User: Fold these one by one.
Assistant:
Number 1:
Amino acid sequence: MNAGVVAVSKSAVHGFSKEPQPSIRLIAGLGVEGDAHLGETVKHRSRVAQDPTQPNLRQVHLVHQELLDELQAQGFAVSAGTIGENITTRGIDLLGLPTGARLRIGPEAVVEVTGLRNPCVQLERYQKGLMAATLDRDNEGNLVRKAGIMSIVLTGGVIAPGDPIRIELPPPPHVRLVRV
């Protein structure tokens, strides 16, 4: 299966879900134009409360459509943008990417993976049981966060559903993703 963009979403206000769009523009060093999380420093309210001068390692949130399919099969009412992602992908093991992997999206845009999204209580407020459904345990009993990955924008550009995604891995040794 070819890796690609299923949907793109944004929201100008801090909230849980983002509205699907025909396209979004990524801005280098900032994030998604017109999105509440755009900026060089943290914009997520919990992070701002801790230290508003922290660099924004959460400029663009990506979720794999395969997770949404899994959640729908469990009875959850989720679709592109519902759980707050900017880019919904298909055909990529997002959670298996290493820190520093680069995703070339469409003709121009490049994002660099910074870490995992930590599922938060907003998932539970949206629909009871959703937070637990985005968490799992691996064979060793370690917590697995399935709610997508975060990234920063290296090269801006317009992206839209149907755009291909090409993965560039950093040189080994690869560093496993942790929550950011």
Note: Helices lie at 45-50, 65-73, 121-126, 130-133.
Number 2:
Amino acid sequence: MGAAVTAVSSNGTYTFTKPNRDSITLLAGLGVEGDVHCGETVKHRSRVAQDPTQPNLRQVHLIHGELFDEVREAGFDVTPGQLGENVTTRGIDLLALPTGTLLKLGDQAVVEVTGLRNPCLQIDTFQDGLLKRVVGRDAEGNIVRKAGVMSVVRTGGVVRPGDTIAVELPAAPHKPLERV
């Protein structure tokens, strides 16, 4: 099976989780139509408090469904949309993509991967102990963030569960993802 969208989610109000939808519409340069994080400048509360004029590099949040399988094995029950993502995927190693990767979602929409999601303490409010499952350390002691990737919309379009995902890597040398 190739890479595919398994769920899409959005919410017009600030809550940790986002309800699943039949489809979402991506707007070029803005994000998910009707989503609280849609806009050219930052919308995440902590970033707005720092500098509300910063560009919004977190317009669309993608999480790999394989993460839900991993945390389920540790006793956590997490389903699409519950960690606040807009697009849940399967069959693509999102965390291994370099910065600047283009993802074509379905027939038209294209997002550019900007970096890793930096999970916050709200994850433990959602399910106690979950934060340690989505942020850890590797053998060398480096922080490993597993809660998905952030992106900006380059080409708008409708995205639905079942849509295929095509990957276009940027020109080498590739820059590893960092938190945004």
Note: Residues 120 and 142 are 18 Å apart (CA to CA).
